[in-house]
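Hi all, posting the design record for the shared folder.

TITLE: backbone redesign
STEP: 1 of 1
STRUCTURE INPUT:
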């Protein structure tokens, strides 16, 4: 997706930014928690920013400004991870009936720092499969 923005009065193009479509957001919106009190920022922009950061392995503070404040992205990711929003989105998407539009196979090998193992125990990383968590 190509997003256009303005910096210092001149137009620029960020071809590497990721953006969910309105249809994609509408499909996962039933899994979002209800907003209590203060309305949330644009879900489409914030979730696209979260996906961009995770997909590219960025630090939250390195997220492009077009997605909103990096603190908003990190806070929402942490909060929604703890209450299981992303788990419900993954489970709901995997449970769709019918022929999938696209199949993808990944073969990525990453070395993780030893402190990364604690993220699953703290509930900061969504459980993708039905495998029980390590004790």
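Okay, here is what came back for every position:
SEQUENCE:
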């Amino acid at each position: 997706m190509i997003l256009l923005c303005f910096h210092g009065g001149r137009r620029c193009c960020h071809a590497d930014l990721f953006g969910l479509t309105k249809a994609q957001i509408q499909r996962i919106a039933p899994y979002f928690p209800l907003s209590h009190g203060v309305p949330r920022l644009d879900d489409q922009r914030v979730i696209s920013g979260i996906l961009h950061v995770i997909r590219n392995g960025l630090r939250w503070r390195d997220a492009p400004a077009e997605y909103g404040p990096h603190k908003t992205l990190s806070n929402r990711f942490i909060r929604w991870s703890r209450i299981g929003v992303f788990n419900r989105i993954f489970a709901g998407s995997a449970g769709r009936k019918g022929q999938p539009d696209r199949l993808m196979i990944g073969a990525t090998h990453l070395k993780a720092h030893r402190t990364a193992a604690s993220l699953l125990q703290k509930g900061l990383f969504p459980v993708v499969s039905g495998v029980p968590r390590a004790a």
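COMMENT: The radius of gyration is 17 Å.
Let me know if anyone wants the other runs.
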